Amino acid sequence: MITISTFIPFTEQQLDAAKHANLAAFLEARGEQLRRSGSELEWVDHHVTIRGHNWFDQYENKGGKAIDFVRKYFDASFPEAVQMLLGQNAIIAAPMEPRKRERPEFKLPEKNDNMRRVYAYLLKQRCIDRAVLDHFVHRKLIYESDKYHNAVFVGTDEDGTARHEYPGRKATYSAGGGGSGSFGGGGSSGARLNLYSI
User: Fold this and answer.
1) pLDDT in tens, 43-60
2) Is residue 73 one of the residues assigned to a domain?
3) Is residue 2 part of a domain?
4) Which secondary structure element, helix H or strand E, spans residue 15, and what is its range?
């Protein structure tokens, strides 16, 4: 029996074939009895009319396609219903390889020619000690971006190569495997600066 955690990758052609399977042939192959009722067939003792791959339950005023029929009347899960309808043709598709996302080359934002706004913000608004700020600025781990005048915090690897930036821009990522704006992960062991709102 197929459990909820079982995933069976069906092709679009297999799903389409199962949806449009001939329900009369399906039922007759299982020994079920059908009788003609006008231009349709009726599943004996069930009050269900069948026309090709479509069905309609007269008492419940409900209908659908072949997969829904097998799920309802044969108490089957979706994968089981598709396999039952396909019968011998139920050759399962091989799982698809996950697509690898290509990332653009990691690039830090351009530096502004001065750091007046960043110094003012970090000293006055965030109350960072000037000696601490100077330490990180001289190590080139904090600077002011040219375009938006944001404070950029740079994370480096063991060799001093920039691998992260914070705050991360929408198109920015961590080149070392950590998350966007992350100083950790991917072997990064650069200087760390934690800023907390008071």
Assistant:
1) 888 889 999 889 999 888
2) yes
3) no
4) helix 12-19
